[in-house]
Amino acid sequence: MDWLRDHPEVKTIRVAAADLNGVARGKRIPARFADKLLTEGTKFPYSVLNMDIWGEDVENSPLVFQAGDPDGLLMPTERGFMPMPWLDAPTGLLPLWMFHPDGRPYDGCPRQALARVVERYKAAGLTPVVATELEFFLVDDSQSGHLQVPPSPRSGKRRTGAETLSLRALDAFDKFFTDLYDSCEAMDIPADTAISEAAPGQFEINLMHQPDPLKAADDAWLFKLLVKGLARRYGFAGSFMAKPYHLFNGSGMHMHFSVLDRNGDNIFDDGTDAGSDRLRHAVAGCLAAMPGSTLVFAPHENSYDRLVPNAHAPTGIGWAYENRTSAIRIPSSGPKARRIEHRTPGGDVNPYLTTAVILGAALNGLEDRAEAPAPISGNAYDHPLEQLPADWGAAIDAFEASPEIRRILPAHLIENFVMTKRQEAHYMAELSDEETVELYLDTV
């Protein structure tokens, strides 16, 4: 309540939780009722966290008619209140996660799935340190069926070419990025470096590493809400859609992580450039889980347009040192900063599920002392590697059958996610390319 007392201008609040697609589901509540919300929480049907991308119930879900569509209990996360700078009226946001009415965590909540993985690490005396790199597009979608780079608020001109690491491209949207950084500070999102990327109107912002994976996933989820909301205030879309333009590279959400022991030492560091045996165990776990994980890393039909050869996104299941063509990259660094970069997830992912699956897979490998294959060198696309599932249907099947995923995620969540994705795949087949873009541009 301290935040609300410090902001008496806030008359309404939003309460929201992430569903399986990472879409914010919630309510608008007058701020004067916040006391009750903080102590008693609020209620949503369990099925609300298991809706398809259109916000429709999943047909034949046991959460709906079979069970009577009962309510779960939504309680505030550790995050507390924060502003929503993209709205006109001063408004507070209170992130939530779901429990059963008796206080048990609800297995269908993606944030609870990540908390389970974090508890596994804690039980082993380990702490993951996580950072994300989020790529996104600024898009003028004012003309139906025709996407283009927005005109610069400074010059009024459109820059239609790719401008990798271009200061001119950043400066063209300087007011937007200044507002974005100010908003990140107000929301306690640790936004670091911004760069322009390899496609027109594409940018990347890094979020600083956190020794709390739940905080890191919260940061990524909230950052996506912020970019999408703030961009609309400027008259264009901020989109994390995996690949809005067929002719250009798509957007990823690369995740970096290391693991600290009880003494605060990085278990991936053995003083050498190669890193420790435990680094290779973690890599092996990530590689073994990758076929089953692909649905989490590429959860939508459009996601698979990004995962094609020679498009700066992985297609083969391999790892390498300082090599951006591989699915798993070990960046060059000082030994104490030795870490793993997972390059498979798209920008359209649910950050909670993605963080849970990556960290869970690495822990599988650590627990099993799994042996990684030899790292590759050169262009990963030229190596005869096992390939990621090539399409949405294959990824759904691999996720459902994966023994590695069953070690990481609750059975209830796996069942819900599979039902959701199969329903989406069925109805997506009826949409035109234009309708697909319209659907994904804002939702993911």
From TrEMBL:
Protein name (record): Glutamine synthetase family protein
Record PROSITE patterns: GLNA_ATP, GS_BETA_GRASP, GS_CATALYTIC
Highest taxon of the lineage: Bacteria
Similarity-based family: Belongs to the glutamine synthetase family.
Keywords, ordered alphabetically: ATP-binding, Ligase, Magnesium, Nitrogen fixation, Nucleotide-binding
Matching SMART domains: Gln-synt_C
Function: Catalyzes the ATP-dependent biosynthesis of glutamine from glutamate and ammonia.
Enzyme Commission number(s): 6.3.1.-
Keyword Nuclease: no
Pfam family, one: Gln-synt_C
Gene3D superfamilies recorded: Glutamine synthetase, N-terminal domain, Glutamine synthetase/guanido kinase, catalytic domain
Domain GS beta-grasp: 8-103
Cofactor(s) the protein needs: Mg(2+)
GO molecular function, one term: ligase activity
Residue stretches making up the GS catalytic domain: 110-444
